[in-house]
Every structure is written in C-alpha cells, then in structure tokens.
Design brief:
InterPro entries: Acyl_CoA_acyltransferase (IPR016181), Citrate_lyase_ligase (IPR005216), GNAT_dom (IPR000182)
Pfam families: Acetyltransf_10
EC number: 2.3.1.-
CATH topology: Aminopeptidase
Oligomer: single chain
Shape: globular
Strand order of the largest sheet: 1-2-3-4-5
Enzyme class: transferase
Keywords: Acyltransferase, Transferase
Number of helices: 3
Number of strands: 5
CATH architecture: 3-Layer(aba) Sandwich
C-alpha cells in the first residue's frame, strides 16, 4: 500500500477521491488543503483523509480494505502534516459510525 500526502491544489486524482467519498455518503466541498491518500500498487485509491485548517475531514476507506491499519496510518500522516504547519489543536469532522475509530487513536468526543 502506498500512502502519500499531497497538496489538494495539485492533486491529480480528485475525481477518484470524490467517488470514494460518495460511496461513504460524504460530499467534497472543495476546501481541503492536504490529502493523505492510500493507493494499491495498481494505483487504485482505497482510502483518504484531509486537512482543512484545524479540521481533519473527508475520512473514507473502501470496505474491502478496512481493518488493515490504513486508518491509523493515514491519520498519523495528516496529523504530522498539521504539526509541521504549526497546528497543534485539531478537530475531527466525521460521521457517527466512525467515532470509535478516532477514539481508538486517542481523540475524544
């Protein structure tokens, strides 16, 4: 699995991200600064999460790839990016079914 941080202004697979978000009931609002994406070796997008100011947002993973540690890997990368940008206090914008994922990473409701 390839995990990478990309500036949202230069991301080339935005349509793939929008499609993945749509499968999770999420809609991209064009406000992301950075995306962390996970791709298979054949370049298939299987997960993403974004940084929007001090908010972690647009978290999605294809069903077939859940439980493989992608959540923690992608969130860690986006948190490192936020830290490098001097953003020390972050909020998470997510759906209720994903709250336990973030709580398992040390976030509180």
């Amino acid at each position: 699995m390839n995990i990478a941080i990309t500036n949202a202004q230069s991301i080339i697979n935005l349509d793939d991200i929008k499609e993945l978000l749509d499968t999770q009931g999420l809609r991209y609002e064009g406000d992301a600064e950075y995306f962390c994406t996970a791709h298979r070796e054949d370049n298939e997008l299987v997960g993403c999460v974004a940084l929007v100011g001090n908010i972690v947002k647009y978290f999605a993973i294809k069903e077939a790839f859940k439980g493989e540690g992608l959540s923690r890997s992608m969130v860690t990368e986006i948190l490192l990016t936020a830290h490098q940008l001097g953003r020390k206090s972050l909020s998470i914008f997510t759906t209720p079914d994903k709250v336990t994922i973030f709580e398992s990473m040390g976030f509180t409701l």
